[in-house]
Design brief:
The protein has helices spanning 8-22, 36-52, 94-97, 137-148, 153-162, 169-179, 202-207, and strands at 4-5, 26-27, 55-56, 73-79, 84-87, 102-113, 118-129, 190-192, 197-200, 214-219. The chain is of the alpha+beta class. It folds into 2 domains: 4-82 and 101-131 and 204-219, PvuII Endonuclease, Chain A (3-Layer(aba) Sandwich); 138-179, no CATH class. Strands 2, 4, 6, 7 and 10 form a 5-stranded mixed sheet that branches.
Length: 223
């Protein structure tokens, strides 16, 4: 079978099909597993193999930091019980202007069956977040409001300091000056400061399909 080049639209379409298939699959290897990282690694690896059977695409590694570098998209897998994951910290600018790449987020609810000794990863939501929507919600909302109300660079600096943006005084001033001419897009992630960014997806799940730049790829029926 001739494999074709993977595109973002195809990635989203296949993620929908994969989510449906995986939601019905009983997996012995995950029975009793409580480590979210192990579940995430399992699902990421399985989806990548699923795509490789059908498409040509560049595979990511730790050097370039995203799973699909040719599409500038990273894959995240998280439990609906606490929908969050870590992400490499590159610059405080990411909290204002976005991560610099899109996200495809698989959200699962894991259930073990003691009789068959298998686990099912029911996909509750699969969402694609375009790069321009990957900034922090409260940070971008506040900055956009200041700019909409004739705020100046000092107002912007005060707000960013209040929000504990991890920058020094020089970078703070540079960001404020840039914001005066480059209004940020509204982001929808919650990004917590740490050695690595901590990304939280509750709002993305809630807003998927209702805001531009946040696609609802798959949504399970309520149990």
């Amino acid at each position: 079978m001739t494999r074709i080049d993977l595109t973002i639209d195809l990635l989203c379409s296949e993620a929908q099909t994969f989510s449906d298939i995986e939601s019905k699959h009983s997996e012995p290897a995950l029975f009793g597993v409580t480590d979210g990282k192990a579940v995430g690694t399992y699902l990421e690896h399985k989806f990548r193999l699923y795509l490789k059977e059908r498409y040509e695409f560049a595979e990511g590694n730790s050097a370039n930091g995203v799973d699909f570098p040719g599409l500038s998209v990273d894959m995240k897998v998280t439990s609906i019980r606490q929908p969050q994951s870590s992400c490499p910290f590159k610059s405080a600018r990411q909290k204002i202007f976005g991560l610099g790449y899109g996200l495809i987020v698989f959200v699962y609810d894991k259930a073990d069956d003691p009789d068959s000794k298998t686990a099912i990863l029911r996909m509750t939501n699969t969402v694609f977040v375009e790069p321009q929507r990957t900034a922090d919600y409260q940070m971008t909302r506040g900055l956009r409001n200041i700019l909409a109300n004739d705020g100046n660079a000092e107002d912007l600096m005060a707000f960013m300091m209040e929000k504990n943006l991890p920058v020094d005084d020089i970078e703070l001033k540079n960001l404020a000056d840039e914001l005066m001419t480059n209004k940020p897009e509204q982001g929808y992630l919650t990004i917590s400061n740490a050695l690595q960014w901590r990304l939280q997806y509750g709002r993305v799940i809630e807003k998927a399909g209702t805001e531009s730049g946040i696609r609802s790829i798959y949504k399970s029926a309520p149990l």
